Amino acid sequence: MRSRALGTAGTVAVLLVWQLVGMTGLLGPAIAPPLEIVAGIVDDGVAFYALHVPVTLASAVVGYLWGNLAAICCAAVVMTVPAVERFVLQIGIASVCIPLVAIAPILAACFNGPVTSAVMAAVSVFFTTLVGTINGLRRTDPAALDLVRAYGGGRYLVLRKVQLRSALPGVLTALKIAVPAALLGTVIGEFMGQERGLGAALVVAQQSSDVVRTSGITLVTGVIAGLAFAVVGWIERATTPWAPSTAGASA
């Protein structure tokens, strides 16, 4: 309770300082006050954001699903065929080490706008889910593994009957962390010449030096990411009540 009160007080203090700095222009015109940003979002209204938010969400969801599916499948292959682990991990490390802004122009030259954004989202989530799934699969109780093997179960049966259930908390945690990454990858992909989407709107606002709208789009994007993060977190708690991490988060 005390930590929550301190967190709330800290947030209020930051907002007050932000408002003061924005109103006085101490750090230049590039910082808009929070109240002005909220007013700008209201002025833009539903018509503006209804034009861009669905496009970004559609690309983010597609990329999120395919990227996570590829990561989970690759993790399953690693557990059943250990010889490919090094190769798969090298692919995952490459996907996270190469800056998104560096690969976005290449993807934009190969695909159309929405596909580019979806691929960027998939690349953004791949490594997080890959590592989380592999770690989860390796935390299986050795006694359960020995029991299935004693009854003649092979690697596939061990994976399906024991390891996947044991890995579920780790997989869901990785999926939760991947939500903001998918949205970020989508927005960066939309920088590459798209006409609609939050990323495209952000580029236009920046080119027009519209600080208020730029900050408003950023705030809306952050709110969407936070809501999606909370939804996946709720799914995590609902589906893995036995997981210690879930209990700790609930407390």
Question: What would your notes on this structure say?
Answer:
The chain is mainly alpha-helical. It is 84% helix and 0% strand. The chain has 10 helices and no strands. Helix 4 (100-110) crosses helix 5 (113-138). It starts with a helix and ends with a helix.
Portion in beta strands? under 5%
CATH uppermost class = Mainly Alpha
Predict the CATH topology. MetI-like fold
Number of helices: 10
Number of domains: 1
Number of strands: 0
* Mean model confidence by pLDDT: 83
Q: From the alpha carbons, calculate the radius of gyration and give it in angstroms.
A: 22 Å
| H/E element order | HHHHHHHHHH
Q: What are the defining features of this structure?
A:
disordered C terminus, mainly alpha, 84% helix, 10 helices, 251 residues, MetI-like fold
Task: List the topology elements.
Layout: H1 2-24, H2 34-80, H3 85-97, H4 100-110, H5 113-138, H6 142-150, H7 155-190, H8 198-207, H9 211-239, H10 244-250
Task: Tell me briefly what this model is.
The chain contains 10 helices and no strands. With 251 residues, the protein is an all-alpha fold.
